[in-house]
Amino acid sequence: MIAVTLLYLCFIFANSATPAVYSSAESSWVTDWVNGIFQTLGLGFIRFSEGFIRKAAHFGEYTGLGILLTVSLSRYPFFAGKNRWRLVAAGFLAACIDESIQYFTPGRNASPADVLLDTCGVLFGVAVSAAVSRLIEKKGKKKGGER
C-alpha cells in the first residue's frame, strides 16, 4: 500500500509540474463539464468558477492522500493512534513540496493558502479514515460478542 501512496504522491507532484497553460486548459474543461451537468439537471443557476474547481481539486487530491497515508502507515506505531498527527505532518510536508514545485513551473506560483488548503484536505482524509476504522472495529466487536 505504501507503493500506491508514493505513486499517488507522484501524480500530485506531476500535476504541479504542469505549466499553467495546460493546467488552465484542464481546469477550464472540468469547469465546463461540471457546469454542464448542473445545466442538464435543470440547476443551471448553480455555476462554479474555475478558481473554485481548482481549489476543490486541491482539497480532493489531498483528502485522498490523507486516506492513503492512514491506510498505508497507521499500522506502524510511529503513525498509529494518538500519533496520527504525524500523518497530517507528512501531508503538510507533501503540500510544501508541491507548492515548491509550482514555484519553478512556468506560469504557476506557490501559495501558502494552498498549503493550508491541502493540509486541511489531509486532515479531513485522516479523520474520515480514523472514523471508518473505528466503525469497522465496533462492528467487529459486536459480531465477536454475539457468538
Could you please describe the fold and organization of this structure?
With 147 residues, the protein is mainly alpha-helical. It has one domain. The protein is built from 5 helices and no strands. α1 packs parallel to α4 (85-103), α2 (20-40) packs across α3 (50-73) and α4 packs antiparallel against α5. The longest helix has 34 residues, at 112-145.
Layout: helices, strands, pairs:
Elements: H1 2-16, H2 20-40, H3 50-73, H4 85-103, H5 112-145
Helix pairs in contact: 1-3, 1-4, 2-3, 3-4, 3-5, 4-5
Short note summarizing the structure:
The chain contains 5 helices and no strands. It has 147 residues and is mostly helical.
What is the approximate shape?
globular
Q: Please indicate the percent range of residues in DSSP E strands (runs of 2 or more).
A: under 5%
Uncertain spans, ≥5 residues at pLDDT below 50?
none
Helix/strand-derived class? mainly alpha
Number of helices: 5
List keywords for this structure.
single chain, mainly alpha, 77% helix, 147 residues
